[in-house]
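step 4 of 6: structure.
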Amino acid sequence: MNLFDYLEPTTQFVIFSAIKILIVFGVTMTFVAYAVLAERKISAWIQDRVGPNRTAPPITKFIPILGPMLVRLGIFQPMADGLKFLLKEDFTPAYVRKVYFWLAPAIAVIPAFLTFAVIPFGSTLGNPDNKMVIADLNVGVLYTFGIVSLGVYGIVLAGYAANSKYPFLGGIRSSAQMISYEIAMGMSVVAVFMVVGDLNLGAVVQYQAKHGWMVLHQPLAFAIFLIAAFAETNRLPFDLPESESELVGGYHTEYSSMKFALFFLGEYAAMISASAMMVTLFFGGWTLPFLSEPASSLLVGLLHIAIFIAKLVVLLVVFIWVRWMLPRFRYDQLMDLGWRRFIPLALGNILATALVLAFISP
Amino acid sequence: MPEFTDLLFYGFAGLALFFGFLCVANPLSRSPVTSAMFLVLTIVSLAGLFILLHAFFLAAIQVLVYAGAVMVLFLFVIMLLDLKEEERRRFRRFTVGVGVVAVGVIAGLLLQTVLKAVPYSQTSTVLAVGATRPLGIILFTQYLLPFELLSLLLLVAMVGVILLTKKELK
Amino acid sequence: MSTKIVDRKPLSFFENSYLPTLMSGLKVTWKHFKKSALQGRPLTMEYPEQKWVVPQGYRGAPYLVKDQEGSTKCVSCQLCEFVCPPKAIRITPPGPNGAPADRRNAEKAPAEFEINMLRCIFCGLCQEVCPEEAIFLQKDYSLTGESREEMVYGKAKLLQMGGTHGGIQKWKHKLEEAEAQEVFPVRTN
């Protein structure tokens, strides 16, 4: 730490930010890998199966009881999956539009990771100025929506680049779906920010620490946000862009190997960032009712991060669980739900919130 | 570090111009989709310029509305129409003329603004305008009428679209 | 017209909210999750450790069998080779100078009898057609090998895998009759 004190504040800031970015990226990547495992495991359990339980690097032989247990839980499966994706043949069909074909997976994966920049995943660590958020933006949530809206391009371009009909239909579906649900999502959040009075996500967390979780103040906004998040991340029951039974594989029909894996990564990263947004907006972020003061010691700081991650994991499980709860919606039902139910509901919610704020509790 | 900010300004400005040029006159590809994608990049570069002016709200809205929503719809339409003949089209005198007039008008406006502008250091109020709260207050007090009129304009467009699509149901 | 059109009842407001479907989905998934994750009773059988009990009459891999005296039942008639749909069976007959059958009442035995287990579809036609009841589909279902050649089972291997199958021996009583006739004093009048 002494070495840091010699440096200029700007340099310190840059170094700390770089470290935070690296750690957040690393943790998110790990989370993505294990979200895939969780998906497979929970799906297996819901379908009365066992799930991945065989992958065992030779090292597990030397761990007495824990080793076989970890193998049964499939802890090493993500490594095998990753290796498989890297080693598979990367095939580019002859009829695709090459530039977009190569660009689309990258565009699909980047926005999902960029969203994490504004999410406060902890209070402070060590130094009280050292906030646990990469970029403490005043327009935090608008930034998130801006980035999320760019996520459509990956899918649309993938559909366009593949130059064949099923991916194209998938791309068209997804662009319509994501634009529709972005509106409902954005409107549901407006009510939250009316209550808080600030667009900064850190301020939202502070407000919730004082007045209780936002999900209690704005249950309707939460419901709309949650369902819109399912649609935005192309998860079941709204996975129409890639619905296997009608569109083969949707926009990733023509992709293989690492390019396919990037779409996969992007989908799970988007799921994690949506969960992180929900934790921050509706479930008090890193706070618990009795642990809401910014951390005074390193240990409490770490505890706050752990609380954030625990809440995140719960929401991820919800995401995975819902996948088996409902069958896929029909496309017109999806549009009907988005435009004719959620947008009016969200508008009504904004109006009601405004009325309550203006006349009952100023 | 003012030098670094300057560097960023020239970077974003250069990118915006470069992408803008590629959007309208790409020597390698005449595909409308490519043009649209370069327009998206131009918009994102402009958002970078807004951020340098501390107008975070404008930057976010720029990306959210233009890059995220409007351009996706553009792309949507382009892909659905499958504009093959657009790639083979030649310049016509009329098109060029209209283009020159449009560019001239916009350039005139720009010139007027630049001539009237005060140097950057004196415009400290810009910083306040760029934030969300002051912007909202101004929109709902001083500019309330134009703001509401704009929404009326959008409503008219929407009603028109509905009328057009439901024409046969009359 | 025998078609009866049943009116579909319009959904009530509550049903339209998707909530009942969501609840029933939650109930079903939770029931299965509880059973397989919390109580540890998934339906899956973990194969190499746990094995399935093969039922009676299961049609697995075809093997050649011996009779109760330990001699080859197959007489190299090549009916099975002829009937085999995927042409998995190949029989090399002994030829005019080949070794004789190892039982007394058979004219010949195959010099080589091969079943390509990669081609075999376990249909059981060979068993059906065999006049000597020399080939039977047995209970093996997991045949593995490291090369294609290894998966072509020869006569020795087939006989060893097949074991003994006593049961009916069609020509046995004929043989006994013939032997009895040799011992029996022939009436001369």
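step 5 of 6: annotate
 - Chain A has one domain: 91-360.
 - Chain A has a mean pLDDT of 82.
step 6 of 6: archive
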